[in-house]
Amino acid sequence: MQYPKELFVRLTEKDVQAEMVRPSITYWQDAWRRLKKNPVAMISLIFIVFLLLVSLFGPYFSPYSYSDQDFDRQNQGPSMEHPFGTDSLGRDQLVRVMYGARISLSVGFVASLTTFLFGVIYGGISGYAGGRVDNIMMRIVDILYSIPFLLWVIMLMVLFREIFPATGGGAGLYSIFIALGLVFWLPMARIVRGQILSLKEQEFALAAQTIGAPKWKILFRHLIPNAMGPIIVTATLSIPEAIFAEAFLSFIGLGVSAPMASWGMLASDALSSLRSFPHLLLFPALAISVTLLAFNFLGDGLQDALDPRMRK
Amino acid sequence: MLGYLIRRFLSALFAIWVVITVTFIFMHLIPGGPFQTEKAIPEAIKENIEARYKLDQPLHIQYLDYLGNVVRGDLGPSYKYRGQTVNDIISERFPVSLQLGLLTFVIAIVLGVGAGIIAALYQGRTPDYITMFFSTIGISVPSFILGTLLMYVFAFRLGLLPAAMWGTPQHVIMPAVALAGLPTAFIARLTRSSMLDVLNQDYMRTALAKGLSRLRIIWVHAVKNAIIPVITYSGPLLAAILTGSFIVENIFAVPGLGKHFVTSIYNRDYTVILGLTIFYSILLIGLNMFVDFAYTLIDPRIKLTGGKE
Question: Helix, strand, or coil here: B85?
């Protein structure tokens, strides 16, 4: 039977709109809508953006550099000239805290990025391949998991300190990036693998298979995008963990080298003169704690927003 | 059951072997060896030292030698402190860390579970908000910040507790609280949410309907089921106490193993770093295995056939 062309009418955009009861919203718009309703998460997000801007541009507005020493003004408390006071070498504490934010945030973002890339690929392959491959790949993760990640990071930093001696006393920022990157993908790999295991049994994966999509395409175009919610939450929550790890390493002398200052180093420096000059501890401590709090709140908020099971 | 135990034990042994091998490789990737940072020394002395510490042997002989020694419980000598072995260091300093760790463990469990139960019972009311407020702060304040703040307030300002060292019961309070902060907060949240889960179960209503007292319902029926997730948290809890001890023992100058570990990192005392890492790994892997066994016994619903998933 033939259908004459006249039977078909081309719909305009307007007709389509009229057909719909309400505008359709994508998964991401829906998640964003839910996130916006969460005041704690939004305040955290605003704080993080603020911190990012301050760490990027703040130091340019300061008349001091993080290594400028002023021996007439050592260990001063907060004042108009130095809002956060000065340290034992007369360096402006405000600009040092802002530089610390740069270090902490870059450590957090780099760790989260490697978590994202490596963890997703590793976990995706493991879950999708299944069987023996999955078993071996997950055994490796289990074994790496059997001792705390900080112990691995310490070992790696001890090793890097000797392999790259050019970085001076500390082990340098890049060593921290590499050490954290090598260890941080573990939880992500587990979560992605679990997601892929259940997603690959669903009909749309079977449909993609029947129309002859290659395996890698099914994994990366169909399965992983559907696991994006938990992936983003895990990546976000790995940021505070990395910031904490950097502060920890700096505190035990394996972090960035002087005169660079990370928050952990500032807190560790403050310890020796804590009795007389507590203000040196106050600001780095506040910076670390509030930042960790903000990232944790944002992660929790994202979890509520992105996890459809929580939907009312 | 026995099959599960054996498989779990073998996989723990395998994990320990991997840790030993990887750390051994790490330590031998370090260029120049452990005596590189010393002043220039005559060739003959250098050779003697290398012979003493078996550095002149080929790598695979050193490795097998080391593995054999670890199996016999000998973690080797310290490069920095002549005449002292890693075993000496452990037997001298580990008891201190153990006391601190045990107290931390008790504080975290008792306080965390207690606060979580109270928060769940008063859900949406003031005690719940107070508990959740403190536990949110608790998971965001790192132990070294909490430790230094405690020291400033209680030692320097109020003068109530000694700022450092070890020996009397007063010395242990601040380090233990600083170490316990994060795990306590985490356990409180965990207990609260699992307690809320349990309280909404049908069998809670049944217990109420058959006329049991509120106290009995909470203790016998709710808490018993609600603390199972807390037991599964034991692994991360032990890890947190262990890595936390590196920092907290340094802040309060506690003469424990964690402080020595950090000192040996400063000193580049590689055999001690290697030996202590292996000691810590065996300790953690062993304890985690024990926890796994324990909670399969506590919770009969857990299947014994599969591995750890």
Answer: strand
